[in-house]
Write a structure and sequence with these properties.
This protein has helices at 10-22, 34-44, 62-73, 88-95, 113-124, 132-141, 146-149, 153-163, 168-175, 179-192, 203-218; strands at residues 2-6, 26-31, 48-52, 78-83, 102-106, 128-130. It has 219 residues and is of the alpha/beta class.
Length: 219
């Protein structure tokens, strides 16, 4: 796995690079600015880019803008965004395509090394990973969406775990139910959120995006 890292804090940037290299992962370049990471992506053609949301010069949304631009240039590039806080509009902007190979984690997750590496590998393999805290806050803010109100409490639990990138078996283990029960819940979620099998996007991703987009519109 070839990785490019964009983080304006030198200590965090180098610490993250050391962590990944210790896991025998190939960090091909690091950058401290959004322009720098776009150049590095073009030059080194990584499998995945890890970007901070807030970068110079304004420390607002440069990292997200760089992530969106990088995906425009190279749609196959996996992108994992790190943020110090839950910033739902940024998450929605990045994830709005409904495509896979995208992740949004809080920086504190990096300290939980196994969880972070699992999310990194999942995103690099074309999956999704949304931080559990992001999921929890966005669910709370999205309660008035009519379609979301159709979901049962257990279906909400399943959708939250789907958002974190867990597969059916992992969800079943977490909720202590059978794989068959999870499959039925997911089919019900798709039906209640009006997600058709004919849709051109991954329905698991689209289901999460429904409440992400709703939360953004309400703020």
């Amino acid at each position: 796995m070839r990785i490019v890292i964009a983080e304006d804090d030198p200590l965090l940037r180098e610490g993250l690079a050391l962590l990944l290299r210790a896991e025998a992962l190939d960090v091909v370049a690091t950058a401290g600015t959004a322009d720098g990471v776009l150049y590095a992506i073009e030059e080194h053609r990584p499998d995945i880019a890890i970007l901070d949301v807030r970068m110079p010069p304004s420390h607002t949304d440069e990292g997200i803008r760089a992530a969106v631009e990088a995906r425009r240039r190279r749609p196959e590039l996996a992108v994992l965004v790190l943020s110090a806080y839950v910033e739902q509009s940024f998450a929605t902007e990045l994830l709005g395509s409904g495509a896979g190979g995208l992740g949004y984690l809080l920086k504190e997750r990096v300290g939980r090394v196994e969880e972070f590496l699992t999310a990194l590998r999942r995103v690099a393999a074309g999956g999704t990973a949304i931080d559990p805290e992001v999921v929890a806050q966005l669910f709370t803010r999205s309660r008035q969406d009519d379609r979301l109100e159709r979901l049962s409490p257990r279906e909400r639990d399943v959708l939250a775990l789907m958002a974190q990138g867990l597969g059916n078996t992992a969800i079943a283990e977490r909720l202590v139910v059978t794989d068959g029960a999870v499959h039925k819940h997911i089919r019900s979620i798709f039906a209640k959120l009006d997600l058709s099998p004919a849709d051109q996007v991954d329905r698991r991703v689209a289901a999460v995006l429904r409440y992400l987009e709703n939360a953004r519109r309400r703020n």
